[in-house]
């Protein structure tokens, strides 16, 4: 989904699709969690009380960056101010908030998730845990915004997780990555004290990823293709 090609109906459908995918992946249960996408000064966001794993586009509300209603028949999620705060401060394109089980479990124990695997560098490295506050409050929104500084993800103490990205697909992928990393940490901690990557090791990974254009597919050079075919 891109900002240039979106319309309110497409935004609402995209949010519903993302929620159903997150539900299928086990990151959403019942009405717990919320998802939004921003295009220009519009934000399409899940309605309060909706069952997210079965969300339909008509259960997505469109508001402006001040929270004023533009489209939709239902009130937006109680975490609206959290989403709007992320958009205002970080200029991002999409926000995903889940009560994913591994992420929530880790948020009940740690003050931050250490960089246990180099893939966490895609989220900025260590993932901070925002202090607990009641859902839907300015206190919670403020602490999460602080925890997100320089990061694409944050955990919420005894609550869940938040990720953001330029696109909705990327924000969903960030949520899946965070949940995977929290699961890895839990398994490692059950066997002993987990090791984690220090700053020098993290920097080496970043340098290697840049040098190798890590994470992108590349066609085999023609000469090598011919050599492989002749064997």
Automatic annotation (TrEMBL):
Source species, domain of life: Bacteria
Matches recorded under Gene3D superfamilies: Class II aldolase/adducin N-terminal domain
Keyword check for Metal-binding: yes
Cellular-component GO terms for this entry: cytosol
Molecular function in Gene Ontology: aldehyde-lyase activity; metal ion binding
Pfam short name (any one): Aldolase_II
Isomerase keyword on record: no
Class II aldolase/adducin N-terminal domain ranges (all copies): 13-186
Family matches, as InterPro entries: Aldolase_class_II_sugar_metab (IPR050197), Aldolase_II/adducin_N (IPR001303), Aldolase_II/adducin_N_sf (IPR036409)
Biological process, per Gene Ontology: pentose catabolic process
Keywords noted in UniProt: Lyase, Metal-binding
Protein name per Swiss-Prot or TrEMBL: Aldolase
Organism: Streptomyces griseoruber
């Amino acid at each position: 989904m891109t900002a240039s090609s979106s319309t309110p109906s497409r935004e609402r459908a995209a949010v519903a699709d993302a929620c159903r995918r997150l539900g299928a992946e086990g990151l959403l249960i019942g009405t717990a969690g919320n998802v939004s996408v921003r295009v220009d000064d519009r934000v399409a966001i899940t309605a309060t009380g909706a069952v997210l794993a079965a969300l339909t586009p008509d259960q997505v509300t469109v508001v402006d960056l001040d929270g004023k209603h533009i489209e939709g028949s239902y009130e937006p999620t109680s975490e609206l101010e959290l989403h709007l705060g992320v958009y205002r401060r970080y200029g991002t394109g999409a926000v995903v908030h889940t009560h994913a089980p591994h992420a929530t479990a880790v948020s009940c124990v740690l003050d931050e998730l250490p960089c246990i695997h180099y893939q966490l560098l895609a989220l900025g490295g260590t993932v901070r845990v925002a202090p607990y506050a009641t859902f839907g409050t300015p206190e919670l929104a403020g602490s999460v915004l602080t925890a997100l500084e320089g990061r694409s993800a944050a955990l919420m103490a005894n609550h869940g997780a938040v990720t953001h990205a330029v696109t909705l697909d990327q924000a969903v992928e960030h949520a899946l990555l965070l949940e995977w990393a929290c699961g890895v940490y839990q398994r490692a901690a059950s066997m002993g004290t987990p090791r984690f990557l220090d700053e020098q090791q993290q920097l080496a990974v970043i340098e290697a990823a840049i040098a190798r254009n890590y994470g992108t597919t590349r066609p085999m050079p023609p000469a090598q293709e011919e050599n492989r075919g002749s064997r």
